[in-house]
Fold these 3 entries.
Entry 1:
Amino acid sequence: MIKKTEDVILLFGRLIIGLYFLLPGAIAKMFNYDFTYSYMSDHEVPFTHIALVLTIIIQFICSIGVIIGWHSKISAFLLALLTIIINYYMHDFWNMDPSIQFDHELQNFVKNLGIIAGLLILSASSPGKYSVRN
């Protein structure tokens, strides 16, 4: 009974975190490419076009990998690395004067640390029974 509960929890966890990177991640970036490019340029992301295309590809492929449990360990690890890079460039609160924007970016930075932690935990664990096996 406990193992079945763990497998269901792993499935729901994979679905939630995978959808986070698929919908507001890869798909939103695809449909709002110009806006995302400008936003990344404003944050001085190097090689912005290449970085954006790679981000979309990684988020798309790895989010599906996490959701279905196909190579979920490496998918989660790659998403964690990508989120670290995104955190550094896009939520650079340390470069801002104290303001509402400072508070917002600090909150996003810390939130992303939690997401990174979840991805690292997932990268160190089995995707569970309800997954496509690696």
Entry 2:
Amino acid sequence: MIKLIIFDFDGTLADTKKLILENIIKTLGKFNYKLEKKFVDILGDNPIERFFEDIGLEKGLIGKAAKLVGDSYSKEYMNIKLCKGFKKLNDIDRKKVIVSNNNTHFIKAALDFAGVNFFNKIYGYDINPE
């Protein structure tokens, strides 16, 4: 019998790519850097710092750019679009957990804003499992 269902957040439960991409483009503009289209497809494959390395951003700017993106993105949790039928997951009578490379606080804020409280645990990149 199934006792636990594990979900990913970004790209599975919520469409976050457009929002993070907008924040990355805005941040890179502050450094007079333009994101080439060929790099959009690799977005989300690695942590943001690695993404900035892959696109060739100067090493000295990577930490600052990552912080700016994170700060800006974390304030936009109310703009997240949840997947179609998301709230029907509440009808599944099993433990439900989110495991994500997103920030736990951001995921919780987005779910709270959407009125969702049926996940037993949320593990983001910033949380160590108990």
Entry 3:
Amino acid sequence: MRLATLGIVGLVFAAFAVYVYETEPRWYERLRYPLRYEQIVVGHAENYGLEPQLVAAVIYQESKFDADAESPSGAVGLMQLLPSTGQGIADRTGGDAWTPEDLHNPELNIRYGSWYLRHLLDKYGSEALALAAYNAGQANVDRWQEEGGEIGFPETRAYVERVQELKLTYARAYADELGL
């Protein structure tokens, strides 16, 4: 009997959580999920043919809009780019004077991150696979595709789902700012 009661309480809580998520007022979403550097986000999204809400979602998931964020693996800045990824993008886009410290610059970090997202979208033809590659690396996604197409890491599957949820949240909360 006690287990059944816990199950019912759990279902009620889950239903309430879904209701709150689906009906959160816009002010709450804006408070919980800030948007910074919106002109840079919109400009580079437009330049690279990306949805600005996708760029904002990746930035939030990667750094919570902290331009000085650094991960234990060495990823840097708003879009958490590895210095080697930044160097590769600089080499392909004519960034002759590029240095790893430039990844702390919001404008350059968002530009390079947007370029990289566009590259991944073009390569994989799928937002989910592009986000998986952004999170786990292209070599892993290439291997997963060879093995049958499933995203192989649970944390990468969770990352993809979270970014796609955030994309919807940013579209809903910041439609005007993102030009939607």
